[in-house]
Design goal:
186 residues, alpha+beta, 60s Ribosomal Protein L30, Chain: A, 4-stranded mixed beta sheet, 4 strands, globular, disordered N terminus
Length: 186
Amino acid sequence: MKNAVVLALAAFVWACSSQPTLEESGKPSVEERTPGAKPTGPSTAPVRPGPGVGGQPIPGAPQAVNPLKDPNSPLSKRSVFYDYDSDAIKDEYRPMIQAHAKYLADHGNEKMLIQGNCDERGSREYNIALGQRRADALRRTLVLLGARENQVDTVSLGEEKPRCNDQTEACYQQNRRSDMLYGGEF
């Protein structure tokens, strides 16, 4: 009975699939190449994601896009910015943080390092403490949303890794942040 259901489902999916036309694929379909021929199945080669022999990509095969590097993915965004003298995470970053938490939950072997940063105002000691509070707040949020505690480490860089060195409010805003780095990036 189980096999019959699987076969029926496979037949339904196959029947609902469509053949690409000459305009879509750039090559004639089975019907266009052989007049009067009945199609026996899809005319395209099977999709083989991932690397080929020796870890090399298979020429012509679609390659899986790493969501951490895909600019269209929320996972490519890695910084959370804060207001002056605050470690409160703004609501605008919730969807991005939820996406990272889900990714970590789904990929149990992945590790993340959160670097807390500050602008140059305040003493060195104060900025180290504030950077740590920012990193820890982001870590707590990720764990509450599904990441495992052992997947996420934190460190404070204080004011030591600025993105901008001008003494303007716009520059200070760029430096008040937490950056999320995945294994291999730190």
